[in-house]
Design brief:
CATH class: Mainly Beta
CATH architecture: Sandwich
Largest sheet: 10 strands, mixed
Radius of gyration: 20 Å
Length: 262
């Protein structure tokens, strides 16, 4: 009996150890200067990005994306030398790092002010289903400055998207969103995507066994960090010309194979 008890204890310890979350990838932003080019690339231009945005996204420009004292700062700037009056940065891991399922968390402090539109989000690596929204989109965090403190987590698919009035998502009020760092995260499995802020679950999107039109989230996705200016949503109530520059600050990005235990 004693041997059996010891065996069960060992098996229990092994199971607990085997189920601990494994860190797959991270960026702690501990090197001053531009974001690590082995991890991050840039989207560039000012064509509106499908949302009538005003900013010109620059590439490898320290004014718009830089690391200082362990924090990534993505900054939107008023600049009349550009046709729409603003520059910013949109950095991504496309072609460098991507994941199929996992726990993705980003510790960030958000900008404030009417016309700001920061986002932490994911798009697929490949065009498997014919473009957006059929390929899928996961918005880990979105915030529009005219509605301060209300943070949104959403998904977009062919069946569920705002263009046809069927978008799936939820929102939660985050105190001190612009003065303190908060952890924005998803736990993405074959069955569902759970959305968290500071480890509080506030939205679940379930895989109900439908085809790709409902669940295109069985493929690899990359991560995107940006701050837009204005746009169809961010600029719904105009853009305050007096608030710039504004920035989203990111302390770290971490990707695990599963949600870590507290």
């Amino acid at each position: 009996m004693r041997k059996l008890s010891i065996l069960f204890l060992l098996l229990g310890s092994f199971t607990s150890f085997a189920q601990e979350a494994k860190l797959l990838w991270s960026d702690e932003f501990d090197q001053n200067g531009l974001p690590n080019p082995q991890y991050w690339g840039y989207d560039v231009g000012d064509h509106g990005w499908g949302n009538q945005e005003l900013e010109y996204y620059t590439e490898a420009n320290l004014q718009n994306a830089r690391i200082e004292e362990g924090v990534l700062k993505i900054t939107a700037i008023a600049d009349s030398s550009y046709s729409k009056g603003y520059t910013s940065a949109r950095i991504h891991t496309r072609g460098k790092k991507s994941w199929k399922y996992g726990y993705i968390e980003v510790k960030a402090k958000l900008p404030s002010g009417r016309g700001t539109w920061p986002a932490i989000w994911m798009l697929p690596e490949e065009n498997l289903h014919g473009g957006w929204p059929a390929n899928g989109e996961i918005d880990i965090m979105e915030h529009v400055g005219f509605d301060p403190g209300v943070v949104h987590g959403t998904v977009h698919t062919k069946a569920f998207n705002h263009k046809i009035g069927t978008q799936k998502g939820n929102s939660i009020t985050v105190p001190k969103f612009d003065s303190e760092f908060h952890v924005y995260a998803i736990d993405w499995t074959t069955e569902k995507i759970d959305f968290f802020i500071d480890d509080e679950l506030y939205f679940t999107f379930e895989n109900n066994g439908g085809n790709y039109e409902e669940w295109p989230f069985d493929q690899e996705f990359h991560l995107i960090l940006n701050i837009a200016v204005g746009g169809g949503w961010g600029g719904q109530k105009g853009v305050d010309p007096t608030i710039w520059p504004q920035q989203i600050e990111v302390d770290y990005v971490r990707v695990y194979d599963r949600k870590p235990s507290l």
